[in-house]
Model the fold of this input.
Amino acid sequence: MLAIFGLEWYWWLLIILGVGFIGWLKLWFFKKMKEKSEKKPKYKEEDE
Done:
């Protein structure tokens, strides 16, 4: 089948899926962190 850089096509499929999933997880995680930081009173601005 398609052998690009010595990897089989299904390895590329797995890599693409993995990268996409990790990217989605990061977005979800940052959304959660944003929600948490918005709820908390901001002390950081006072410290600086």
Remarks:
- The CA atoms of residues 5 and 12 lie 10 Å apart.
- The longest helix spans residues 9-39.
- The two ends are 58 Å apart (CA to CA).
- The chain has two helices and no strands.
